C-alpha cells in the first residue's frame, strides 16, 4: 500500500520556523519526485516546491524560495520542507504528493499519483 505521511505542522509565531516531513512507503522512492503543496482556507491548492530524490534536483516557486528549503533523505524515504521566517499568510494545510520523476517540477496537481493527508501549519501571534 502506498503511503505518504506528513508530520511537523503546528502553531508557530511569525518569524518562527517549522520543518515538515513527508515519509513515503509502498513505492519505489527514486522513481518519483515529491512535491509540497498547501491550501489555505478559501483558496486553491498551491504548489510550493518539488524534489527529485534520484538526482537531488529541486524546484521552488518564487514567493517562498528565500525562506523554504526542500531536501530528501533517501535512506529514510523521507522528504523535508524547512520553513523559516514564517508569516501569517503561510497558514494553511500542507500536503506532500508523489509524481513520476519525469514530471518533476510540475505543480499541476492532477499529474500527481499519491497524496498525503496533510498537516496544519498555523502562523499566529
Please tell me about this protein's structure:
The protein is an all-beta fold and 125 residues long. The protein contains no helices and 11 strands. A hairpin with a 6-residue loop joins β4 and β5 (46-52). The chain is globular, with a radius of gyration of 13 Å. The N and C termini lie far apart (40 Å). The mean pLDDT is 96.
Distance from first to last alpha carbon: 40 Å
Count of strand segments: 11
- Note the quaternary state here: single chain
Q: Give the CA-based shape.
A: globular
Briefly, what is this?
This protein has strands at residues 3-7, 10-12, 18-25, 32-39, 46-52, 57-60, 68-73, 78-83, 92-100, 114-115, 119-123.
Write the layout of secondary structure elements.
Layout: E1 3-7, E2 10-12, E3 18-25, E4 32-39, E5 46-52, E6 57-60, E7 68-73, E8 78-83, E9 92-100, E10 114-115, E11 119-123
Parallel strand pairs: 2-11
Antiparallel strand pairs: 1-3, 3-8, 4-5, 4-9, 5-6, 7-8, 9-10, 9-11
What keyword list fits this structure?
mainly beta, 7-stranded mixed β-sheet, globular
Amino acid at each position: 500500500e502506498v503511503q505518504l505521511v506528513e508530520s511537523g505542522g503546528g502553531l508557530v509565531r511569525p518569524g518562527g520556523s517549522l520543518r515538515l516531513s513527508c515519509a513515503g512507503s509502498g513505492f519505489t522512492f527514486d522513481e518519483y519526485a515529491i512535491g509540497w503543496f498547501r491550501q489555505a482556507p478559501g483558496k486553491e491548492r498551491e504548489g510550493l516546491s518539488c524534489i527529485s530524490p534520484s538526482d537531488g534536483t529541486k524546484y521552488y516557486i518564487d514567493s517562498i524560495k528565500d525562506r523554504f528549503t526542500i531536501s530528501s533523505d533517501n535512506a529514510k524515504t523521507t522528504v523535508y520542507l524547512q520553513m523559516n521566517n514564517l508569516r501569517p499568510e503561510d497558514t494553511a494545510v500542507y500536503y506532500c504528493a508523489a509524481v513520476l520523476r519525469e514530471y518533476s517540477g510540475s505543480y499541476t496537481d492532477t499529474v500527481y499519483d499519491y497524496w498525503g493527508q496533510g498537516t496544519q501549519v498555523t502562523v499566529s501571534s
